[in-house]
Amino acid sequence: MIKVAILTLSDKGSKGQREDTSGPAIEKLVKKIGAEAVSYDILPDEKLMIKKKLISLCQKADLILTTGGTGVSPRDVTPDATKEVIQYEIPGIAEAMRAASLKKTPYAMISRAVAGVRGKTLIINLPGSPKAVKENLAVILPVLRHTIEKLQGSMEECACQRNKGRKSSCHK
Questions:
Q1: pTM metric for this prediction
Q2: Contacts of 24 by beta carbon, 8 Å cutoff, 6+ apart
Q3: Beta bridge partners of 9
C-alpha cells in the first residue's frame, strides 16, 4: 500500500475562509493506484512552514502531493519550498503535467510545479484548483506506483513493469 500525504497550501483555506476541495479530490484519485492517505493538512503559503511540514511528512509517506501555490503570485512559494527540501528533481513529471495542461489552457505555461525526491519519498506539486488537480493526476497516475517502487529499492527492470501479464524475459 502506498502511503500518501496530502498538503494543501492556501492562506484562505488555512484560516477556514475557503473550503479545500482539491485535497479531497487528490485523496479520491490516488485510491485508483492502491494508495491510502495517511496525512491531510492545510497550511498557509509560508515557505518555512511548508519546508518543515514536507520534511516531517517524508518520515511517514511514500508520496507527498501538494496542491496550491504553484503560480507566479507573490505568495506562491510551494515550488521554492519543495526545491529546498528535495535532493533531486524528476523534471519529466512536472513537464508531462504542463504539456497536458497546455492542451486545455495557455496558463499552464506559468505553472512552476516541481517533482522530486527526498530520501525514499516522492514529492509532487499540483495546481490549486480541483479541476486542474484531476487533470494533472490523470497524466501522472500511471507512473506513480512504479516510481515509488523504484525509490524503495525494487530491482525489477522497467520493461518488466510494462509487460506484466505478458510473457517476457525479465530479470530481477
A1: 0.91
A2: none
A3: 43
Site of grid cell 492545510: 42
Pairing, β 35-43 against β 2-9: parallel
> What is the CATH superfamily name and number for domain 2-162?
MoaB/Mog-like domain (3.40.980.10)
* Domain definitions of the chain by residue range: 2-162
What pLDDT, in 10s, does the model give residues 20-49? 999 999 999 999 899 999 999 999 999 999
Reference 5, options 99, 118, 93, 83; nearest CA is 118
CA distance 76 to 9: 9
Half-sphere exposure of residue 14: CA atoms within 13 angstroms, side-chain side: 16
Q: Which three cell numbers stand for residue 11?
A: 492562506
Q: How many residues does the chain have?
A: 172
Nearest in space to 66 (alpha carbons), one of 147, 35, 81, 18: 81
Grid coordinates of 32: 485508483
